[in-house]
Amino acid sequence: MIKTDILIIGGGPAGVVAGITAKKHYPSKQVTLVRKEEKTVIPCGIPYIFNRLDSVDKNLMPDQPLLDNKINLVIGEIIEAKPKEKQIILENGDVFDYDKLILALGSTSQLIPIPGIEKEGVWLVKKDYEYLKKFREVVLKSKNVIIIGGGFIGVEFAEELSGIKNLNISIIEKLDYCLVTNFDEEFALAAEEKLKNRGIKIFTGKTIKEIGGKEKAEYVKLDSGEKLASDLIILSIGARPNIELAQKAGVKIEEKGGISVDEYLKTNIPDIFAIGDCAQTKDFITNKNIPIMLASVAATEARIAANNLYQIELIRGNKGTIGVFSTFIDGLALGVAGLTEKRAKKEKIDYLIGEAEAPNHHPTSLPGAEKIKVKLIFSKSSENLLLGGEIMGPESVGEMLNILSLAIQQKTSLFDFNTWQIATHPLLTSAPTVYPIIAAAQNAMLKIKI
Ligand SMILES: Cc1cc2nc3c(=O)[nH]c(=O)nc-3n(C[C@H](O)[C@H](O)[C@H](O)COP(=O)(O)OP(=O)(O)OC[C@H]3O[C@@H](n4cnc5c(N)ncnc54)[C@H](O)[C@@H]3O)c2cc1C
Asked: Is the C-beta atom of 323 inside 6 A of ligand 1?
């Protein structure tokens, strides 16, 4: 039997951030991190192993930060957790005694029920080094690639693969447009336009009737009757939280599938925490359970859990997941934080919209000047708080979006934006006269009677 103070199961973003934070916060405690895989890939970099990175090996998470922080790294699969005994058991029979257990078990992509889905040539998006090496080789030998699912992973794969010569790429999305669950229509359609410009064919509002072929997938038949030739099908839908180990140990699971946690990421069992993709997220605005699985969310949860393992030391817990997400398609950065207009309508929230467009440099005659578009959603209540925002434009909008996320978290009102003090520079930002986040807030302000 091996003793450790803090035991973390999982070597993805959640586990790594939890390990390092815990060690920094409780330097005298022994921290052990157990993960299945010898080499861990950076999940968000997976779409880029095919062309931009040109290899799976260039997309590995380094172990050095774990070793530098004197975290005991163990490679192996945990097959059982025994909360009463405060023990976990590895498949090789090793037993670890823990004081605090952090479940950072992650998520796994699953096959979905489509006739023919089991055929050779259908690939899932797995966070698995060896699998991705084979996957990469197969992609590079392919001709007709069909991506099922126009969510952010499908779209990022399509964009990346469109940079490889002689690949015909199609996306099939059963909803009305790609990125439909992330963005409002005008932003999603701008992304689709970029994809089409790169020669990607997009079939929206269509479902798959069958994946056909003898043993190998040779074609995909759509409900509309179209038949698309394929030698490679990428399934970019259906990731589910890994909860089986926790469930067997008696940890409570939410109806939507994630491990039930409180604001400090504690489960129903004393001294067991759950973070990252395996834990259930609650929406910051509506407080309803939502299925958000992002590395950035995993890292936030990891910091909160690891800071508060022994007692609630840092008063702030997790007040809910804002759901802040960005992507980059053919030179266009798109980001969303909090509610979109579509979700505000669905939730029957009374809202005000503010919109603005402005160049990212001033004067616009400067080389590289591009347009930034901002859409903000404020509550219509007396406080007029920021509930959500979408931005698209050049690379700088990635960080502008993160400002919006903090503004939502800090319950910033429309009037706060009007008095917001900012830095501007011709080569770095929009002009102070038209700064698009402020201009969008002012646009919303015109719609209320003060
Ligand atoms: C292609 C792709 C692109 C993405 N892009 C982005 C992006 O741009 N931005 C973003 O924020 N998010 C992105 N995500 C989502 C992000 O990858 C996940 O949210 C993130 O990986 C979650 O981290 P995690 O640590 O919770 O889980 P995971 O990364 O899934 O890690 C789980 C870990 O648990 C270990 N484990 C599980 N069970 C056991 C066991 N029984 N014994 C031992 N070890 C075990 C696994 O081995 C693994 O190490 C992307 C995901 C994919 C697939």
From this structure: no
Is residue 306 classed as helix, strand or coil in its secondary structure? helix
Looking only at the bridges linking them, the beta strands covering 100-103 and 272-274 are: parallel
Please report the DSSP string for 15-26 in residue order.
HHHHHHHHHHHS
Please count the CA atoms within 13 angstroms of the CA of 217 that sit on its side-chain side: 29
Alpha helices in 173-294, H assignment, sequence order: 185-197, 244-248
What does the block give as tokens for 283? 């929406």
Atom of ligand 1 nearest to the CA of 245: 41
Q: Is 265 near ligand 1, meaning CB less than 6 Å away?
A: no
Angle between helices 397-409 and 436-445 (to 10 degrees): 50
Whether 120 and 216 have beta carbons less than 8 Å apart is answered as yes
Q: pLDDT tens digits for 166-213?
A: 999 999 999 999 999 999 999 999 999 999 999 999 999 999 999 999
**Whole-prediction pTM:** 0.96
Q: How far is the CA of 302 from the centre of ligand 1 (A)?
A: 13
pLDDT in tens, 73-125: 999 999 999 999 999 999 999 999 999 999 999 999 988 889 999 999 999 99
